[in-house]
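Consider the following input, taken from an annotated entry for Sulfate transporter (Kitasatospora aureofaciens).
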Amino acid sequence: MRFPTSRFPASRFPTLKYDLTASLVVFLVALPLCVGVAVASGVPAELGLITGIVGGLVTGLLPGSSLQVSGPAAGLTVLVAETVQRFGLPALGLVVAAAGLLQLLLGALRWGRWFRAISVAVVEGMLAGIGLVIIAGQLYAMADRPAPASGTDKLLGLPALLARLVSPPAAGGTFLIGAGTIAVIVLWQRLPARARVVPGALVAVVLATAVTWLLDRPMKKVEVKGLLDAVQPPGTGAFEQFTPALIVTVVAFTLVASAESLFSAAAVDRLHDGPRTDYDKELMAQGAGNALCGALGALPMTAVIVRSATNVQAGARTKASRVLHGVWLLLFAALLPAALGVIPVAALAGVLVHAGFKLLPFKQFGPLWREHRPEALVLLATAVAIVTVNMFEGVLIGLGLSVVKTAWETSRLHVETEEQPEGHVRVRLTGNATFLRLPRLLDTLEALPADRVVELDLSGLRHLDHACQTALTTWTERHNARAPEEVRLIPALAGQV
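Applying the prediction step yields:
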């Protein structure tokens, strides 16, 4: 018996088979990262899964970007860890919920597109700084040692950590589990595409878990509470901590999560030919997800470029793939929570070390240094500031340097002095005359002889700010006072100075 074609699910949902396959691949990529980011942030592993579930089931359903996938991101690990250490775990939900509400407001005000105006060098520097802190911190976790609090101390303590690994009694066995995890992930990427359908991070964690079980050695494992037990909504006591310091933290979460999500959206749009991202709607979708994550006391979410690129490359056609990936995470967390308890923390640390390396802009920095050195310096300064100071202030330093660099470059002023046949001196100004170039301009003018006729040619100026205009007027009056009738403006420019 032959059924009409219209009755087959495939005819009603022509893209379902592609989205279903893609969702399974994304789920396998997201699972170890959700757990690893949570453990690295110093919170229960289930909170990372909750954020991944909300990113799929809630943010995945909302309009904005059709193919990018949201969840807990390595880029926020440092900020979350700092927040938990400073304010405590109960305050995390309040911070995340407030950041989500602020994202909703910014999206409603149509500010989403303005996040794209943030300098790429600042974003790359932010990710590089985060990557360095993650790598340094997770190397301690691989050795089953507590990591120092600050990024600087983490880096400075690495030689002592290495010495401990090679001197008895050493933690080399634990460290080798993490190192082996990294090796498997790297080598897995060299296999044929058919083999790489199963993500390397998942394979590495499974192998590390199996090796740990076979060796039967005491090793720190992921602590499991259960999905419902891990939920920690902000209590009334959390609102008492709503201090200026906490408000600054909320702004930091909002800035970093929004910028990372919208930059990810721009990158994902370049990977497919489907509908383009509506940045304001995407910002509101991220805000709705973070508001719910905060209400559940979970980790903050962003759109994650690794999962999003995997989604596109796996053949996803619609947002159904990212929603289904959230369904698989929910089923895993509900039916197999005990599976988390056998995973060695060193293996997850290895996954995070590899993720940290992927945040470092190795390929981008060389061309940037050769072609746009000031941008490269902003990138370096942002990364160093994040490592040595903290996440939020490091980003602010990077933004400040970017603004200064842009102001300096747009205020380029060329001052040319030419001898004229009649014995006059012509000073031609081209570019933008702003206060940043005023010292050089005044040095040139004051070096001119007082007994010569001077022509100021301002026809090449695109902008003359108030400071420069006042300075030119003052210099003209002083020169005229010393040598009457010996300063004149060319006729077409009379009245500008």
